[in-house]
Amino acid sequence: MDEDLAECLLLWVQTFSVDGERDSVQSLSDGAALSQILHEVAPSFFNEEWLSGMIAEEASNKHLKMSKLKKVLKGVVSFYDEVMGIKIQENKKPNLKMVVESTNLIEMGKLLQLVLGCAVNCDNKQDYIQAIMSMEESVQHGVMTAIQQLMTQDSDPYSSDGDGLDVATQLQNAMRDLAESKQANLELSERCRELDLQVMFSINTLSLHR
User: Fold this and answer.
1) CA 151 to chain centre
2) Which among 5, 126, 176, 178 is least surrounded, fewest beta carbons within 10 Å?
């Protein structure tokens, strides 16, 4: 994780229609927007009761912000464990203290990367994949790089519990979906261009015969 990649993930979270600002580490550090995003991604897991507990009290100081972010991270870790069958090792979790006390972009990026993993593996993953494909190409590349990093097995950052697909398989499927969506968008754009040319040709032909 580097700052450029974290910036791409900050742009990615802005594709969600949730309350509050989410364009900086500071604006995300109270956990409110992230909890709403998780509720949108997996409403049966991050249910209304969980969400209401997250947004009931405004996190106006560092202590409350830390408490909220810990609940967000705990929820994400539980989602990986219970839904995706993946256990996240402690050394791969973000340092929330650095997020809250020094608005550390890279550590927030690590948290957003885990949220991204939830989005591209939920029941409505195609909706979120399409949202990624609608972003600028450089941001698309950054988000896809974040997904690829989640797939990295060199240091064994994640492990499967044996009951679900391992992280590589799950996120390779997401990457394949991204590639297929991008190709479909390119083909659609090319078809639209061809149709535009045909229409222009027809108009010009009619004009010449008047």
Assistant:
1) 15
2) 176
3-state secondary structure of 188: helix
DSSP 162: S
Q: Token digits for 205? A: 């032909």
Amino acid at 7: E
pLDDT of amino acid 161: 47
Give 109's contacts (C-beta < 8 A, 6+ positions apart): 1, 3, 5, 6, 9, 10, 94, 146
Strand locations in the chain, DSSP E? Answer: 86-88, 158-160
- pLDDT for 153 equals 45
One-letter amino acid at 21 equals: E
CA–CA separation, 114 and 11 (whole Å): 15
* Contact in structure between 30 and 45 (CB atoms under 8 Å): no
For residue range 52-82, what is the model confidence (pLDDT) as tens digits? 888 766 667 889 899 999 999 999 999 999 9
